[in-house]
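Holo prediction. Input below; ligand is guanosine-5'-monophosphate.
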Amino acid sequence: MPKKPALSPQSPGSNSGSVFVVSAPSGAGKTTLCKALLEASPDLQLSVSYTTRPMRAGEKDGVDYHFVDIADFEKRIEEGEFAEWARVHGNYYGTSIRRLEEMSRSGKDILLDIDYQGAAQLKKCLDNGVYIFIMPPDFAVLQQRLEKRNSDPEEVIIRRIENARQEVLEAKWYDYIVVNDNFDFALQQLKAILSAESCRTTLILPAMQDMLN
Ligand code: 5GP
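Structure of the complex:
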């Protein structure tokens, strides 16, 4: 874990939208929900993280992640390149400050699909972050989903459930909790959060100065 967060507040002259930071225990359906949310929201752009985990079948470098080796990742840590980084399931994951700032200048909203450790780091240094935690309805459903979705051995599934019990405790400091019991409803709730956040006084007022003078 980094000693202190590296991201400075919004860069001067940037035309930032909101940064939606989404976390969940594995099996809660976060990846599928984020994908559907991105498809439904043309003004939302995904932040592509760096990782040292091996590429999975069907994934593309630069699209799903920037896949790098451990030495490369550790050099980037040394050089202060990450807004946040963490070790998740034994691999490094991190968000590049430069890429975040580039995306921010476009004025579009940004979606970060990152774990709670990274989210906690951003919470300390981002002033336009909106934190959303995706919850499974209960641990029995989580277990069923994990068993159904992959061929992980039973002990790996048990470990993920144990991790999930710790991870859900982090939900208390997020701005929103979306319970993914019904996929369509959970997606609707995510869209509603995006919509509500787009009406924030701090975002709208600067564009309304003519009317207010
Ligand atoms: P996966 O390897 O299954 O794609 O992701 C594993 C976990 O790492 C997920 O919880 C995902 O949200 C998280 N993750 C992906 N990118 C980042 C990142 O840049 N930073 C942090 N802290 N976690 C990440």
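Residues 49, 53, 84, 86, 88, 93-95, 113-115, 117-118 surround guanosine-5'-monophosphate (CB under 6 Å). That is the main takeaway for now.
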